[in-house]
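Sample intake sheet
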Amino acid sequence: MVYLKNYSVILLLLMTLPLLATARNDDWRLVWSDEFNTEGRLSPSVWNYEQGYVRNEEAQWYQPDNAVCKGGFLVIEARKERNRQNPLYIPGSNDWRKEREFIEYTSSSVTTAGKKEFLYGRFEVRARIPVAKGAWPAIWTLGSNMEWPSCGEIDIMEYYQIKGVPHILANAAWGTDKQWGAKWNSKATPYIHFTEKDPEWASKFHIWRMDWDEEVIKLYLDDELLNEIPLKDTVNGSIGKRTNPFTKPQYLLLNLAIGGINGGPIDESALPMKYEIDYVRVYQKEKKIVSGKVWRDTEGNVINAHGGGVLYHEGKYYWFGEHRPESGFVTEKGINCYSSTDLLNWNYEGVVLPISEAKGSDIEKGCIMERPKVIYNKQTGKFVMWFHLELKGRGYGPARAAVAVSDSPTGPYCFIRSARVNSSIYPLNMTKKEKRIKWNLSEYEKWWTPEWYDAVEKGMFVKRDLEGDGQMSRDMTLFVDDDGKAYHIYSSEDNLTLQIAELSDDYLSHTGKYIRIFPGGHNEAPAIFKKDGIYWMITSGCTGWEPNKARLLTATSILGEWKQLPNPCVGENADKTFGGQSTYVLPLQGTEKQFIFMADSWRPESLADSRYIWLPVRFDEKGIPFIEWVDRWKPD
């Protein structure tokens, strides 16, 4: 018997090797399993037993004795009982638990509540289920932070009869505005769908699987997808405080119910019924950066920090970005902040610069706040935020730069002012001859002609705005150089030309020193960094919300001569910047040679659903940066 048992274990290992290899190849790691190889009761360090009459007016009384590990399986048995008194019985009671004088059936339900709970992953259960009338076996999960159904329920497997026809179900439920009122996403597949393919289906073990991540729950039976449930649809109602239960940990339940609301009439000739579970396995992927997917903070909420930048200060990264609305384009809340020590797990710090309720304020509700960046001033000890601001009801006409300041990276930030840039001041690299030209704008109403391009290059729009409120400032970023000097880089002249402007020593205003680069080049979304004394800038063309080919600019002096190089993106979809638009390049702390390219993949139909693209910046043998797509990666 010992020899046979060892042989069986070896055989089992050989059978599971392909499965484990597949899990590894897909970047899955086994984080917990129960193979049920210890004879007798389940381990109390992992499993709990439900007791008594529990739910759904089911016929069975749950008790531990009906679940036992035997021969490498967990066997849950539903049995007929004889003359066993119900300890809850109250004559005349209307409570289904108390109106039954005798316990007619027993079974078991086991859970990992409070002992093993998981957030996301691949759950696999290999089992053989009873299919007689009245049987209601299940593999399911529940959350523990709220009452049902706002806690969330995922039914990886249920089997029961619907109008006398047996079905296998794959479901999820969450809360509504009514207490104990559930919203269901349910798929019931007729049992005959499986037996037509395999008449011996009921005599065999099968693998039920759930793949659950930040975006979707997928439920499978023997690799056949039974149901796919997007998490964007699973938001609780008011009872569950509009939270999403499937962004919180869930625990596992295995049970064999009989009868009740869904089990229906019981075929007593099939008793005792056996529900046999071979194993339960949970796999998870190592936390990594996965561009283009939904990113959630440590509370499970979708990160909303678009057009953003990242500041490193005293051991933490602070990510600032636009709070984008579900619909429309105006700013509804303000500037969000998240913090992290590893760039993978982000804590929500709140709205650090909210819109103003004061009528007439530059940042009153209805304005547009974009591309926020924060830098730290070592001399003043202040955190300074600049962002692109459009005034309420003015579209993208005002084109202002706005500044706010705080004593803490997480705010609150005090709004100081907004204005256009460097009014009445010429750029450093504009010639005397260009300054003397008097432009008649009516002669250049037709854009994109050779004459128009020549006029733009010579500064026609600089002169126009010089005599007005100052230079336009739209898409923007900030850069602090090695000497502590800070610069404001922004798209100007109707998004036709980039300008680089020096900031004052306190970073709160402009000094009047600025240059224009690539006039008429139609660059926006600047993201600048420096390596080995060379300045690099990645920009985007101007194609609205649609992605386009990135541009790479370089210089040896930030206010010097810049030149353009080919698209830094390489590989598939490189001509569309992998579907994104640059927003920032983040230098990794502890190294002077590693950088992260940050971009937004815009979804204008719902800007809040726009995705993030973060990719490593690499350098070729000539020291020129390039970016290629990586599905999953982790900063060193």
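Comment: Confidence is low (pLDDT under 50) at residues 1-24. The two ends are 51 Å apart (CA to CA).
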